[in-house]
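Today's session is about reading a structure prediction critically. Students often jump straight to the picture, but the first step is always the sequence itself: look for stretches that repeat, for charged clusters, for runs of hydrophobic residues. Only then move on to the predicted structure, which in these notes is written as discrete structure tokens rather than atom positions. Here is the chain we will use throughout the hour.
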Amino acid sequence: MEGQVAAAWALLPDYLAQHVLLSAAALALGVAISLPLSVLAARNTVVRWPLVTLAGMVQTIPGLALLALFYPLLLALSAVTEGAFGFKLQALGFLPALLALTLYAMLPILRNGVAGLTGIDPAVREAADGVGMTPAQRLLRVEAPLAAPVVMAGVRTAAVWTIGAATLSTPVGQTSLGNYIFSGLQTENWVFVLFGCAAAGGLALIVDQLLGLIEWGAGRRRLLPAAAGLALLGLGTAAAAVPPLLAATAPAYVVGAKNFSEQYILAELISGRLTAQGADVARRDGLGSAIVFRALEAGEIDVYVDYSGTLWTNVIGRKDNPPRAQLLAELTRWMKDEKGVVVLGSLGFENAYALAMERKLANSLGVASLDDLTARAPRLTLGGDLEFLSRPEWAAIEGAYGLRFAREKSFNPTFMYRALSSGDADVISAFSSDGRIAAQDLVVLADPRGAVPSYDAVILISPRRAKDRRLIEALTPLIGAIPVERMREANYAVDRDEGKVSPAEAARMLGVGSKP
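Below is the predicted structure for this chain, in token form.
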């Protein structure tokens, strides 16, 4: 516990600085866009309803989905700007998070701005017109001061929403306080989860109080409290934003990882070998399967570990299931020819999707294979990870065996395994290299029809690093060096309830060594 707390504190300066910079930029951009739109909507009833409705519709989109949607949009736009103007937009990290959070911040500011301006007594406007004020003078000298308290209430709401939603930016590659929460959930490090929640909540509370001080001072025409609140807010934002801005130079290598324990461990292993050479390394953890490959292809990350079956079905779109060696050879050739991506080789173990059950239940039902499961499935509940039920692999299994479950549920991988013991699921989409299979005495159901392809863990290198000798020489010794038994032990060391270790410590357990 003490080690986890110390690790959380050590990460706080970077995570907090990145979170503040992102939230402040999104809120400032939201204010800059929403205030002029508020004036337009308040004065023109034709555009008022469409603007407020559109801003409200954005709020109905789940935050994580909105963040993810900006990634492919920016990727497409980046291809256009590169062809037309010779530069690429960053589709991963800060920019998609900034755009999504800006949209989230707009509704309360826009709605309160319209309410504040339309709520002014018409007699006040008539008086302003009567003394000869122009529309601009009336807005700045009369309407804006009267509407300011209502507008500030909207800004305060937007600030709290933005700071909270910024924790969701981790899956699109932006460092934030959400890194604590996402990595903590995957590795069952509840200290990290609580630390991330507490830090985000504390930041939101402080910002809300400082904005409240500005609102109170402005409402009572007391400049000192308003100026003090504004100064404290500005100084705090600047202090947090300076470190990441000073460190904005691109690192030598960017290592990516998906959002489960094994990926964190392997990213630590790769990072350790590169830093041992004196290279600067940045991490992009917690990325989705589709995002992480497209980021590699676009050169926004340089290296990560993926699985041959995932690439075969999701990237190439193949539905056949050749032998392991043939699949790996064809995959390597296709990646090089079509994408410019280097498949350096297999790490030596496979992490395949496999349906698993508790041994006691499997024995009582007489289920040892997916063929056996077919007749029993209509009375059982299937639990999959967050991606499984929408992946081609599940479609292939479902089609090959005609599986029809009574219910299908999606879980975070951590809670998916716990769902078996709690009775929330009878069958789960386990991972064959997961140590929890043995620890929980699960039965992995055989796949006699070969519906699922092989899933060798392979190192992928981006096109822009395809000839980087330093990178290739550092990582080549990892090829074939990690047996599945050792990977299971490392995974379980991170995932177990008692005596758990960090992904960095688990990477050292693999026995490969951090030095090339």
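Discussion point for the tutorial: Residues 2-246 form a domain with the MetI-like fold fold (CATH 1.10.3720.10).
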